[in-house]
TrEMBL record:
Any one of the GO BP annotations: fatty acid metabolic process
Gene3D superfamilies: NAD(P)-binding Rossmann-like Domain
Organism encoding this protein: Engystomops pustulosus
Assigned protein family: Belongs to the short-chain dehydrogenases/reductases (SDR) family.
One Pfam assignment: adh_short
Highest rank taxon of the organism: Eukaryota
Annotated SUPFAM superfamilies: NAD(P)-binding Rossmann-fold domains (SSF51735)
Entry's transmembrane regions: 192-215
GO cellular component entries: mitochondrion
Keywords, ordered alphabetically: Membrane, Oxidoreductase, Transmembrane, Transmembrane helix
Protein name as it appears in the record: Ketoreductase domain-containing protein
SMART domains the record matches: PKS_KR
GO molecular function terms attached to this record: estradiol 17-beta-dehydrogenase [NAD(P)+] activity
Limits of the Ketoreductase domain: 9-203
Length: 222
C-alpha cells in the first residue's frame, strides 16, 4: 500500500463503512491516525466493526437517504471526535435486472430502478449537502482547505453491462454531479472528488455476477 502521510487529528465519516470498500476505508483512516464514524444501516455489522477498531471508531446507524439519520451521525462525530474533516461516500446498492425480460414479457420494475437511484444518487447528495455545514466550522489548513469529500462511482458509470441499467445510471449520476458540486464548494475550502473503481469482491457484486451467470445458463437451456 502507498505510504500516506499521517492523518492524526482528522475525523472522517464513511457511509457503507461496515463492509467492503467502506470498511477498508475506515480501517485505513484509523491506521493512518484519524478517527472515523461508520454510517451504515442498523441491520449492518457496523457496531461490531466499530468495537473491533477501538476508541477511535464509532458507529452511527444511518439510512443515507434520511436527513435525520445523517444529522445524528454528524452530531456523533462532533460530540465524540470534535467535528468532520473527511467524508467518504461508499454506501450503495445494486440490482441485476434487464430492461425487459422477453421470456416473462415483463419490464424492469420501476420501483427497483427508483430505489437504486434514490440510495446511490440522492443518498450520496444528502450526505454531501449536510456534511458541508459541519466542515465549514473547521479552521482552514495552510492551503486554505477545510475538508474533503470523496464519492464512489464505478466503472459501470462508463461501461455498464447487461442488467446494470439502474446501477450504471446511478453511478453515472454521481460522476455527473461531482464537478458542479466541486465548483460550488471550492470557494468554501472544500474539495470534492469521485473515484470509479473497477471490479471489487463485494457481496452485492458477487450476487449480481451469480444472478447474471445463472440467467445466462438458464437461457441456454430454454
Amino acid at each position: 500500500m502507498a505510504n500516506l502521510r499521517s492523518l492524526k487529528g482528522l475525523v472522517g465519516i464513511v457511509t457503507g463503512g461496515a463492509s467492503g470498500l467502506g470498511r477498508a476505508t475506515v480501517e485505513r483512516l484509523i491506521r493512518q491516525g484519524a478517527s472515523a464514524v461508520i454510517l451504515d444501516l442498523p441491520s449492518s455489522d457496523g457496531n461490531n466493526v466499530a468495537k473491533s477498531l477501538g476508541e477511535k471508531c464509532a458507529f452511527a446507524p444511518t439510512d443515507v437517504t434520511s436527513e435525520a439519520d445523517v444529522n445524528n451521525a454528524l452530531e456523533l462525530a462532533r460530540s465524540k471526535f470534535g467535528g468532520v474533516n473527511v467524508v467518504v461516500n461508499c454506501a450503495g446498492i445494486a440490482v441485476a435486472i434487464k430492461t425487459y425480460n422477453k421470456n416473462k414479457q415483463k419490464p424492469h420494475s420501476l420501483e427497483d430502478f427508483q430505489k437504486v437511484i434514490n440510495v446511490n444518487i440522492a443518498g450520496t447528495f444528502n450526505v454531501i449537502r449536510l456534511s458541508t455545514g459541519e466542515m465549514l466550522k473547521n479552521e482552514p489548513d495552510k492551503d486554505g482547505h477545510k475538508g474533503v469529500i470523496v464519492n464512489t462511482a464505478s466503472i459501470a458509470a462508463f461501461d455498464g453491462q447487461v442488467g446494470q441499467a439502474a446501477y450504471s445510471a446511478s453511478k453515472g449520476g454521481i460522476v455527473g454531479m461531482t464537478l458542479p458540486i466541486a465548483r460550488d464548494l471550492a470557494p468554501l475550502g472544500i474539495r470534492v472528488v469521485t473515484i470509479a473503481p473497477g471490479t471489487l469482491v463485494l457481496m452485492h457484486l458477487i450476487y449480481f455476477s451469480f444472478i447474471m451467470r445463472l440467467y445466462n445458463v438458464l437461457m441456454s437451456l430454454f
